[in-house]
Amino acid sequence: AQTVTQSQPEMSVQEAETVTLSCTYDTSESDYYLFWYKQPPSRQMILVIRQEAYKQQNATENRFSVNFQKAAKSFSLKISDSQLGDAAMYFCAYRRYRSGTYKYIFGTGTRLKVLA
Amino acid sequence: GAVVSQHPSRVICKSGTSVKIECRSLDFQATTMFWYRQFPKKSLMLMATSNEGSKATYEQGVEKDKFLINHASLTLSTLTVTSAHPEDSSFYICSAPRAQAAESQNTEAFFGQGTRLTVV
């Protein structure tokens, strides 16, 4: 069975600085998707970034980028130029690469605090 | 982006009563919807997969008679917590991928705003 582990329950970063959130996963499959979701105080889950396992290039979305290490089964999120609005719970998630299969497995989350 | 609307956002009910939570896809059809439960400061735990026109698929340990799921149309799934007890108090979240992207590998799930259920 697939598992997703986020070992940092809470992280803090100074505004405008850079922070990296860690995520590791376990799977026997070779093709899959990895995601980072943000859950702000409003509790609405928002997709931050997505990575296809078959792509070697790390995904980037503006200030957000990932460091995807497939062999190590590691998928960290880097937030550059942190803003107060980045404060939220961040969940790493795994999904199998199979048509019609949309079941997500979420990590336990990392609470990010942004200090002014 | 696609919008999934969940209602109500908050509900307080008495122990022993039933509560219905609705999840609607507003601008796309969803043949599949997912229902999650989130405990305080915890991750999202998948409870069941709702399938339009057929029975829901429940995860191990989730009581299907306790958490009734109905997916009557391509835009609406409901979760009914029957005979609610205080231990059912939690945050419930639904999500749905786009139906037209069913054969596309690359699709994301869109989440509702969540429902805070408090059973007193």
Written account of the structure:
The complex is a heterodimer of chains A (116) and B (120). Helices cover 0% and strands 53% of the residues of chain A. By secondary structure, chain A is an all-beta fold. In chain A, the strands form three sheets. In chain A, strands 2, 5, 6, 10, 11 and 12 form a six-stranded mixed β-sheet that branches. A four-stranded antiparallel β-sheet of chain A has the order 3-9-8-7, with no helix packed on it. Chain A is globular, with a radius of gyration of 14 Å. With 120 residues, chain B is mostly beta strands. Chain B is 0% helix and 49% strand. In chain B, the strands form two sheets. In chain B, strands 2, 4, 5, 6, 9, 10 and 11 form a seven-stranded mixed β-sheet that branches. Chain B has a four-stranded antiparallel β-sheet with strand order 1-3-8-7, with no helix packed on it. Chain B is globular, with a radius of gyration of 14 Å. The interface between A and B is medium-sized, with 25 and 24 residues.
Summed up, the helix count of chain A is 0
Largest protein interface?
A-B, 25 and 24 residues
Largest sheet of chain A, in brief, is: 6 strands, mixed
Q: What average pLDDT do the residues of chain B reach?
A: 88
Gyration radius of chain A, rounded: 14 Å
> In one word, what is the shape of chain A?
globular
Number-wise, the strands of chain B total 11
Helical content band of chain B: under 10%
End-to-end separation of chain A: 41 Å
Structural classification of chain A: mainly beta
